Amino acid sequence: MKLTYNIKIIRVGKIKNKYFYNASKLYFDRIKNICNIKEIIIKEVKAKNFSTIINQEGKNIINKIDKKDFIILLDEKGKLFNSIEFSKVIDNICTQQKIPCFIIGGSYGNSQQIKNKADLLISLSPLTFCHELAYVVLLEQIYRSLTIIIGHPYHNE
């Protein structure tokens, strides 16, 4: 079943580890079979000052946000959801004609400007993940959520 939903992911940096790349490609392709998904990769900023990196990457991310985007920022202090709750969040956003726009910041985190702009802060876990692994986990959870929405048996509960 193909949904008319649109999902957008903005993330900083390319996936350099081949295992993370292969896993992310697997779930990205599975998601494409269910709905439209767009990915925007922001180039990592090179600077000696962490604050400069975070702020410039933040500006670059904000330049890629559209008016229809419902901004969901991955943040360690964000709200935790189980998979059923997460699927309801995605479903509710999409049925309101908004586009869930997931943002994964770079290695040093997100600027306060992005945090202030976000409609929702979510955490994938109380644990901290490298941003490449966070991307894979996010894709798997988006895929799981979509299968819950369409009634596919991927999610066993």
Description:
With 157 residues, the chain is of the alpha/beta class. It has one domain: SPOUT methyltransferase, trefoil knot domain (Alpha/beta knot, 3-Layer(aba) Sandwich). It contains 5 helices and 5 strands; from the N terminus they run βαβαβαβαβα. The chain has helices at residues 18-32, 50-62, 83-95, 112-117, 131-150; strands at 6-12, 36-42, 69-80, 99-104, 120-123. The protein has a 5-stranded parallel beta sheet with strand order 2-1-4-3-5. Helix 3 links the parallel strand 3 and strand 4 (99-104).
List its salient traits.
157 residues, alpha/beta, Alpha/beta knot, five-stranded parallel beta sheet, 5 helices, 5 strands, globular
SSE layout and pairing:
Layout: E1 6-12, H1 18-32, E2 36-42, H2 50-62, E3 69-80, H3 83-95, E4 99-104, H4 112-117, E5 120-123, H5 131-150
Parallel strand pairs: 1-2, 1-4, 3-4, 3-5
Subunit structure: Homodimer.
Organism: Desulfonauticus submarinus
GO molecular function: rRNA (pseudouridine-N3-)-methyltransferase activity
Assembly status? single chain
CATH fold field value: Alpha/beta knot
Radius of gyration: 15 Å
Low-confidence stretches: none
Average residue-wise pLDDT = 95
Q: Strand arrangement, largest sheet?
A: 2-1-4-3-5
Question: Which H/E pattern describes the elements?
Answer: EHEHEHEHEH
Number of helices: 5
How large a portion of the residues is in β-strands, by DSSP E?
15-25%
Per CATH, which architecture?
A: 3-Layer(aba) Sandwich
CATH class call: Alpha Beta
The total count of strands amounts to 5
Ends distance: 20 Å
Tell me the major beta sheet.
5 strands, parallel
Q: What percent of the residues sit in helical stretches (DSSP H or I)? A: 40-55%
Sum up the overall morphology in one term.
Answer: globular
Task: Write out the CATH superfamily name.
Answer: SPOUT methyltransferase, trefoil knot domain
Whole-number tally of structural domains: 1
Structural class: alpha/beta
